[in-house]
Design goal:
The protein is built from four helices and five strands; from the N terminus they run βαβαβαβαβ. The chain has 104 residues and is an alpha/beta fold. It is globular.
Amino acid sequence: MRMLDIGVGGGRTTRFLAPQVKEYFAIDYSSRLIEECRIKFKEVIKEENFITGDARSLSRIFPGKKFDFILFSFNGIDCMNYEERNDLLMEIKLLLNPSGYFCF
């Protein structure tokens, strides 16, 4: 599977999920936390697979990419208002393979 981990934070899910997938990408709004992940997981995940960005702009951050599994864990979606959630879900729909899974 190709996986996208939205709101990765300091990588609390990375150590468990990244070894289970063929390709792992992670995004977070915090550049400090993304840098922390790049350092923490530099031996197993390419640095460029950790991206600082806004989840509401996923299709611009990952143009042409499709994912088999997209995760937005630890209630990150609860930090968004209704319109932002709608924007996020539309972005996820663009990136998710037709037979893929979204978990939040």
